[in-house]
Amino acid sequence: MSGTLVLVRHGQSDWNLKNLFTGWRDPDLTELGVEEAKAGGQALADYGIKFDIAFTSSLIRAQRTCQFVLDAVGQPSLETIRDQALNERDYGDLSGLNKDDAREKWGEEQVHIWRRSYDIPPPGGESLRDTGARVWPYYLTEILPRVLAGEKVLVAAHGNSLRSLVMVLDRLSKEEILKLNLATGVPMVYKLNANSTVASKEVLGDMSAAH
Asked: Which of 36, 88, 126, 158 does the annotation list as catalytic?
């Protein structure tokens, strides 16, 4: 029997609230973001899961979300591996800019292309495909083997790094993944088959946000 993979997007950050492009910049969670992270942790506690290991990014908003989840499930000191391979998509020259200001500078259509195309990166940054190109190898070498060995693995990361994983797990096309928005703090629980395909998926929270 293969193990369980749980994905959680971090709660709202200060820059989410201020409508800024964040990427690899490192703002903390807002009070709402803390509550979202705690709620996700409580949902997993109610689900009754205990983890063998946790993975998160090198950014504080994901790390704190990870810790709130582990606190909620009664495993505050669980081994946690932090790696920038799980970081948010790098928005390059857009990082730190207000999204409205960016539209003023480059035009609504161009900013929309950068945000919502699969393989066109913003200046100095990453496309979703580029993000996947660093997330997928890390998943295959570090995370997946543990799940296939029967472990229960938590990954607390970011909208785009997790979308890269969901794209593979749910076998979504480039067009489908662009329409997918992951809710903050809402755990997705995957049980995998021995061949690494998905046996089942549960979203612990707002179902409408998962599709």
From this structure: 88
Distances (CA, A) of 104 to 38, 99, 110: 37, 9, 10
Give the largest CA-CA distance in the chain: 53
| Structural domain includes residue 98 | no
Tokens describing residue 117: 């195309």
Domain with 136 in it: 4-14+27-91+131-206
| Chain centroid offset of residue 95 CA | 18
Round to whole Å and give the CA distance between 32 and 11. Answer: 7
Query: Do the domain assignments include residue 66?
Result: yes
Q: Residue 157: CB partners within 8 Å, gap ≥ 6?
A: 7, 8, 9, 10, 55, 56, 57, 62, 86, 87, 88
Catalytic residue among 10, 36, 126, 158: 10
In this structure, is residue 139 part of a structural domain? yes
Known catalytic residue at 10: yes
How confident is the prediction along the chain (211 residues), in pLDDT tens digits per residue?
Answer: 689 999 999 999 999 989 999 999 999 999 999 999 999 999 999 999 999 999 999 999 999 999 999 999 999 999 999 999 999 999 999 999 999 999 999 999 999 999 889 999 999 999 999 999 999 999 999 999 999 999 999 999 999 999 999 999 999 999 999 999 999 999 999 999 999 999 999 999 854 443 3
Our answer to whether residue 88 is catalytic in this structure is: yes
65's tokens? 């979300």
